[in-house]
Amino acid sequence: MTALLLCLLAAAPLELKGRPAQGFAYERFRQAHQIWTAACRAHGVDPNQAGTGQWTTSSWQLAVALEGHYALPWTTRDIPLEVTQSVRNDGGALWQKVARTHKGKTDHEETALVGDSARYRGFGSSDWQTIPYADDHQDWQSWRRVNQLHEPAILLHRIATRLSGLQWAGDTNDPTKHRILSFSEENGLVRYLYFNKSTHLLERIETLFHHHGFGDQSDMIQFGDYRKVAGAQRPFQIQERYYQGGSGFSLTWTRSTATAQLGQPAVHRAIWGDIAPPTTDETSAVTWHALGQDVYTVTFAEHEARAFVVAFADHSVVLDAVGDSRAGEQVLDLVDTKLPGKPVTKLVLSHFHPFYTWGIRPYVQRGITIITTPTVKPYLQQLITNPHAMLPDQQFLQPKTLRLDLVADHLVLEDDANRLELYDIGPHTNHTPEYLVTVLPRLKLLVQGDLVWMRPDQARGRASSRAKGLLTAIDERALDIATIGTSIVHEKFLNWVPCSLLRESVAGNNAAFDSGASRGEAITPTVSPWPTAPASE
Question: Minimal CA–CA distance to 125: which of 137, 111, 112, 108?
């Protein structure tokens, strides 16, 4: 045993270096991703357009065989129903009216669902109840099935938000030749999806679960008679079998009509009032500010990050690829909207650390030149070529090559409209061997990422070795700097540091301050705005 332990300790650790995923599990995911992509095409689904606000209204004949608490085991009661539904294409909203005829009298049950709240009135009742979501509520379970499982197009859209839950489970040899995917829901349920190998349409869903009375069970939904509605393939025949509590259900849904519309149906609006169409945009968390002199910032609350945009006569330059691919796309889209005729043509990367580079892929995909230092190139090459199948971006779908402009010491970008100066101060930073800072002379502003960490309540006399190195570089190059701006937005630290304050802090000669050590302390931060109070657009 001792010898085995020594062998294990002596074994070389697995190499990191940001290598792309590999191995058996990843290959099964890649297989699943290909099958899912083919299914999206076959169903007429664009997974990137889930939030259009489209609704599908359908009329159904529903035959229910209910196994309940009857006199003998396995006795079922047949219940014919007529159902009218309007379902929003993200599965987040539903209107449903069910008609039941009993002893010559027709009663109605009606539901209007938005997110995790429902308004409901039962058969024979005129009073509405508001019912919050509950996992174990039988009505909620039924409504969720309609919203999440009855329309394959909705299920394919949901999978797009959780692609990492996909795995290829194998192929069948039956005459229909199914390709099977497993899909793990957030609540832990695993669903098995059977796609026809020829048509790529979803034909069956199986869900394994443990029933407290009957033990291991399998819910099943089968789809058939697909027809095109508003460009998407939708099943007009659905058969399903499942248990809820002590009751078993076998249902046959036969759709007679289906229409699509943009915007909330009037019957749903009459119950809930106006609701906003679904959206995955977090535009409220992305803000655009004008600093003056054709310099702007784009701030991302989600990433605690700020990108700088410098506009020239006929183009723009972005400083640092903060956030992720989506953040990069948002910066580029904002520049197109806010600065028409001045598209982004260059991206400056201060150094290779993740915070400043992980949003690079959209810039590369649009053919934008990346300005950085020489040793960063291999790292960037890997960032743009590693597969992104689990959360596809345009660089994954339509890859482009890296266009680089490498800075050895300094570089100036200038035209009649603006001037931008880049300096490699890596040896001074005590951080990375190469590090570009950007100077905007008209604002007397120096932009950097993580060299200055000053708490607003303890700024004077508290300077790190990085901050000292920055001031040394400023003085050695005789730069006229009034303010130091940061790419990191952190509520406990100054985001706009007067250069005079940096000088006072360095004069305090305390280089022991570690920015990470104080982040958890309870303090009352002072929000330090840009000194010239930028106008928000």
Answer: 108
